[in-house]
Structures are given as C-alpha cells and as structure tokens.
Design brief:
With about 160 residues, this protein is mainly beta. It has two domains: about 35 residues, no CATH class; about 120 residues. About 10% of the residues lie in helices and about 40% in strands. A hairpin with a 4-residue loop joins strand 7 and strand 8.
C-alpha cells in the first residue's frame, strides 16, 4: 500500500528548501500514486457456500491518505459452486463512516463476453460490499440471471478508509 512516510510540509515565507526535504516530499508524493497492492477478495453467499473452484477472484487497490480505490474481478469456472442466496465481497481495508447501502462503486456483469448487467456496489458492513440493482434487489446465484461458467464480473470501488 502506498502511503506518505514523512509529514507533509506546510511551506511558509522564509522556509529553506533542502535537498533532503525536497527528495522526501517528492518521493512520498510519487509513491502515493505508485504500484497497486494485490488482494484476494473473499466472495460469500448468504445461503449455501460459494466456492470458486477453477474460477478466479482477484483484486488490486491503492490507498492515498484515507482514500482507497480499487477493482476486483470474479471469473466463474466450470467447477465453481455458485452457492445460493445473495453475494457479498470483502474490501481490502475497512471503510470509515459505515452506512448500510452507501454506494461506493459499480459492478459490470459480462455473460459470454457481452455486457449484460450493471449493478451498484454498496456497503453492507464496514468490510463487505453487496451488489444491487436500482430497485434494491441484491445480486446472487439466481439474480439477475442464473450464474454459469460464462459469467464474469468487474467491480470498481472507491471509499474512505477507517
């Protein structure tokens, strides 16, 4: 995770810029936008357990100060047990100011390579998100459509870290 390692300097008239201070400030500024950190989101179902099998779940994120931005993918395989009920996914770090249903991103569901459904990513706890349509219906094993091995989703999110 990219974070500042030195205090951000507030400049005032008469301050003297040194090479060490300039290097530290520029290095930390550049590092804050540096490489993303990988994480493996846990995907759960509210009924029978979800098990990825030969599919894949992956994610990346970056954190600058308290702002977290990232994305995750869920690729259903031929041996994936899609479970039953509605789905939830873990975030890389806990969210601040948790409020049930607060939107923090979007989910795009592709079926056989075609964009099929777009859903809103909402907080369901400070560490988990759910996926809902405009009517509030949660995405699950049977909604909006039955999940099959042709199902692939991309999830983007941005929120304030706790």
């Amino acid at each position: 995770m990219a974070v500042w390692t030195t205090a951000v300097k507030t400049w005032a008239a008469g301050n003297r810029l040194t090479g060490v201070l300039l290097n530290a400030q520029l290095r930390d500024f550049a590092n804050a936008f540096g490489p993303r950190t990988s994480y493996t989101p846990a995907v759960t179902a509210s009924g029978t357990a979800f098990a990825i099998g030969n599919g894949s779940v992956s994610g990346v994120y970056s954190q600058v100060q308290n702002e977290v931005r990232g994305n995750a993918t869920i690729n259903i395989g031929t041996t994936t047990n899609v479970g039953t009920g509605v789905y939830a996914m873990t975030l890389p770090t806990a969210a601040a100011n948790y409020q049930l249903g607060r939107p923090i991103g979007q989910m795009v569901i592709l079926i056989s390579g075609t964009i099929s459904h777009v859903r809103t990513v909402v907080l369901i706890s400070s560490t988990q998100v759910g996926f809902v349509d405009t009517g509030g219906t949660r995405v699950g094993a049977a909604a909006p459509v039955a999940v099959t091995s042709a199902w692939y989703s991309v999830i983007e999110f941005a929120y304030e870290a706790a």
